[in-house]
Each structure stands twice: as structure tokens, then as C-alpha cells.
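Need residues for this backbone.
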């Protein structure tokens, strides 16, 4: 076995050591990853939150958990041939009510299984509001993309790496509880860990966020391995040049060297999507695109979805039913005012009444998924 290599950071007066370069010893061999892919249907679906939830907390908290809406909307996903969904969890939900949280996850998995849909759960997320709070969530800011989405963990923990160990019971409690659950396809341990979102986040008490998430990323892979899940672990690369190993960031190295299945994000037209897929083939592992589809910037179902199917690359677009996340509006709605529904939706496929945004588009999706 190769020894792990540790790098020492001096941050906020605290010496922190973190594994940043060598792969975890328990990473699946590529043969096991290929066997996992052979035993699964093509993973195609969306990043899912019910239209009645503004963020992860509102989706999962007992007072606002909405199985009726989840059941209805997953039924629409089944109708267009989706076989998988990617769903975000949050550490505060474990802290607030661990047993109830596990029960609601189990109920959610039952609903997804009813519609023949597997689930990939996301453990941590580095995007949007760094100050999550349990309890009643804010109303959406009109016409603003993901105005209420929250990071996990928030800045109160992320700025203090000595507190990271407090997150271990959440990671191992959730993954350990469902480690042999066939309703779960994968565990995505950290979404876009080095996403700075400088416009709303900045630094955390003088500490660089990227340094902190790098440490927590490796910790989370290690904690997840200790839980011995039967499902693969992953964390998706999302920016930068992956074709040149010399240009990989420290975060990308940890992601690519620890993931059993290689996942990535691509909100680009087909030519760039092709380049990104080709750049990741060298890892000889199954590939899953866990985020794509932003119509105005050229990332569209036609032709990207058909390409991903033909290449046997899993495909999860962002968004499903237009609702409180308001992701029909573009990213720039944080800085540019919008006063009405955009002529071209950024994300999402259905209106809240089940009507497709574009019937021709859903017909195309079905022509690919139900073939």
C-alpha cells in the first residue's frame, strides 16, 4: 500500500495537516468501478429538489418535508425516462434531528424507488449562502437564481478547521446507515468544494475558503471510506483544465485520486463537453456528468444528452420543476435585475402544474432515454 502524503498548512495561527496528494488506500480498483457500471442502467436524470423547497433545509426539515409533491414530481421524472436523481443533504439536519432525518431520507428513497429512480446523495456543498440556519427558511427573492440555497457546512465551521471533526458523525451516520442500500447509486461527498462565489462569500474570518475546503474534502473521503459503503464515492471536478495533469489544482487532484467513479460538471456547448469527456477517459473509470444544461450559454439537451448516452456517460441536468429555487433565472440575476420570466429558461424542465417548459424538448429527452 502506498503511504499517504500529508501537506501542512499554517492557517489563522493553527497548523493543520491534510492529505492532499495520495489516493485513499480503500479506493475501488478500476475493475470494481467498471463492474458497478455494468450492473447499473444508464444513469440519467436531474439534480432534484421539490418545487416547494427553497433549499436543502426546507426540503428535509420535518415541518416542510413534502412527500406529496416529491411523489408527484418524481412521477414526471419517471415519465420522461429518468433513472436517477442527485439530491443535496445538509449537516445541520443531522445536528437538528438525526433520527428524524434518517427516517425522512428512507421515506424519500421509498418514493424514488416507487418510480424506479436511484438516488445520488450530496454530503457537502460549497455554493451560495455561507450562513445556513435551521428553522423557517426565507422566502425567495423575486426573480433571483437560487436566492435561498445554503452551503454545507457554513462559514461558522469552515473558518475553524479544528471543528471539522464535529462533522464526522453526520458523514458516517448517514452513509453508514444506508451503506448497503440498493436504492442509492452513489455518494457525492462534496459539491464544488473550491467554488469561491466571491460575490456573496468572500473570505471566512481572514482564512481562505479554498484551503479549508481542501482539508475537509479529504477528511470527508476518509470518513466515508471508514463507513464501508457498498456504493461508490465521488466528487466532481467542475472548472479548470483537466487534460494536463500539471495544471490540476490541489482540490482536483484529491477529487480525481479518491473518486471511485469520476464525476464532473460542464455547462458548455457540445464541443467543450466532448473535450472534457475525452480528458477524463485516461482514468479508466466510469464517467458521470453530475451537472449540465444551461440553455442560454449553449448547454442544451439537444445535442448534449444524446452524446452523453452514446458515450455511456451518466447525465444529471440541473433543475427539474420550476419553483422556489427559481433556477429558470440565470446566474447573473444576482447582479442584473429581472422583472419577469425570462424568454429562455436557464434551468428546469417542468412548470409546477406538470406542463413542460418546451414540449419539443421533453419529446427529445424521451427519444434518448426511452430508446
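Answer:
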Amino acid at each position: 500500500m502506498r503511504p499517504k502524503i500529508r501537506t501542512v498548512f499554517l492557517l489563522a495561527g493553527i497548523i493543520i495537516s491534510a492529505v492532499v496528494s495520495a489516493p485513499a488506500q480503500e479506493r475501488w480498483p478500476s475493475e470494481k468501478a467498471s463492474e458497478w457500471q455494468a450492473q447499473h442502467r444508464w444513469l440519467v436524470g436531474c439534480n432534484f429538489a421539490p418545487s416547494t423547497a427553497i433549499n436543502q433545509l426546507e426540503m428535509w426539515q420535518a415541518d416542510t418535508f413534502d412527500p406529496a409533491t416529491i411523489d408527484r414530481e418524481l412521477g414526471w421524472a419517471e415519465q420522461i425516462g429518468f433513472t436517477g436523481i442527485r439530491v443535496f443533504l445538509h449537516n445541520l439536519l443531522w445536528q437538528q434531528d438525526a433520527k428524524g432525518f434518517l427516517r425522512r431520507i428512507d421515506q424519500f428513497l421509498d418514493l424514488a424507488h416507487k418510480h424506479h429512480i436511484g438516488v445520488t446523495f450530496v454530503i457537502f456543498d460549497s455554493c451560495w449562502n455561507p450562513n445556513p440556519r435551521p428553522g423557517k427558511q426565507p422566502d425567495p427573492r423575486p426573480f433571483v437564481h437560487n436566492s435561498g440555497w445554503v452551503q454545507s457546512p457554513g462559514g461558522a465551521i469552515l473558518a475553524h478547521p479544528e471543528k471539522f471533526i464535529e462533522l464526522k458523525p453526520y458523514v458516517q451516520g448517514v452513509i453508514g446507515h444506508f451503506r448497503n442500500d440498493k436504492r442509492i447509486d452513489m455518494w457525492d461527498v462534496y459539491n464544488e468544494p473550491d467554488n469561491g462565489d466571491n460575490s456573496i462569500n468572500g473570505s471566512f474570518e481572514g482564512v481562505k475558503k479554498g484551503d479549508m475546503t481542501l482539508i475537509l474534502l479529504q477528511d470527508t473521503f476518509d470518513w466515508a471510506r471508514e463507513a464501508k459503503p457498498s456504493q461508490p464515492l465521488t466528487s466532481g471536478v467542475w472548472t479548470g483544465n483537466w487534460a494536463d495533469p500539471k495544471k490540476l489544482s490541489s482540490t482536483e487532484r484529491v477529487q480525481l485520486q479518491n473518486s471511485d467513479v469520476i464525476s464532473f460538471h460542464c455547462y458548455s456547448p457540445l464541443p467543450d463537453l466532448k473535450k472534457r469527456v475525452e480528458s477524463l477517459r485516461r482514468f479508466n473509470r466510469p464517467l458521470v456528468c453530475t451537472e449540465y444544461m444551461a440553455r442560454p450559454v449553449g448547454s442544451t439537451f439537444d445535442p448534449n444528452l444524446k452524446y452523453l448516452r452514446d458515450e455511456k456517460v451518466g447525465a444529471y441536468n440541473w433543475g427539474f420543476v420550476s419553483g422556489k429555487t427559481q433556477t429558470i433565472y440565470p446566474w447573473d440575476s444576482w447582479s442584473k435585475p429581472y422583472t419577469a420570466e425570462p424568454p429562455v429558461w436557464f434551468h428546469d424542465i417542468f412548470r409546477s402544474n406538470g406542463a413542460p417548459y418546451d414540449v419539443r424538448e421533453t419529446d427529445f429527452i424521451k427519444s434518448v432515454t426511452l430508446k
